[in-house]
Write a structure and sequence with these properties.
about 190 residues; alpha+beta; three-stranded antiparallel β-sheet; two-stranded parallel sheet
Length: about 190
């Protein structure tokens, strides 16, 4: 049993969970479902007890969000049911964010094509990095009608992006390249040198 109070109490406390080592997708989904559900309940409980101000802001980082909240569900009933539940829980958690002093930072390769619309519509800001022009146009279409900047963004170098939100877009934004950037053998060598 996880002590969520202990996990969330310290300002500089970092807790990481991974399901990477698990073999079965259904097991991974079950664990992710449990974690999201418990996180939602823990933050909601702080709000109910009027104790939220005693805790530091919480930032949740989720890698490859489309695997947690996919647009297209699994063909296996058990996995599909869990995926649907995950989408609902994540949507509830995202709707609760501003009330419980929490942010969610997530990444996915193809925002509109792979991610559930129930979840993607709840993001306030989307940082769009280099990619395929049609995918970037889809991101712009979700928040603004102007897709003209997509070709510029598609050719950005690593660490440069565009911010897209309901208020419009800003570009270019220079960031430090992500530490989780996939190695490209032609540019980065074998990763050990």
């Amino acid at each position: 049993l996880l002590d969520w109070d202990e996990i969330m109490a310290e300002e500089r406390h970092v807790t990481a969970f991974t399901v990477h080592m698990m073999r079965e997708k259904s097991d991974k989904l079950a664990i992710l479902s449990y974690l999201l559900d418990r996180l939602y309940d823990a933050r909601q409980e702080l709000l109910r007890r009027h104790r939220l101000e005693e805790y530091p802001p919480l930032t949740v980082v989720m890698r490859e969000l489309h695997t947690i909240a996919p647009r297209t569900k699994s063909e296996q009933d058990s996995e599909s049911t869990t995926e649907s539940y995950l989408v609902e829980t994540l949507a509830e958690l995202m709707a609760l964010m501003r009330h419980v002093n929490m942010d969610i930072i997530a990444d996915t390769q193809k925002f509109k094509q792979q991610l559930s619309p129930r979840v993607s519509k709840l993001f306030h800001r989307i940082y769009c990095f280099k990619g395929q022009k049609p995918d970037i146009q889809d991101v712009f279409r979700t928040r603004v009608s102007n897709t003209d900047p997509a070709s510029t963004v598609a050719s950005y170098e690593t660490g440069v992006c565009a911010l897209v939100s309901d208020e419009g877009y800003r570009l270019p934004i220079r960031t430090a390249p992500p530490r989780f950037h996939h190695l490209d053998a032609s540019q980065d060598g074998g990763g050990l040198s």
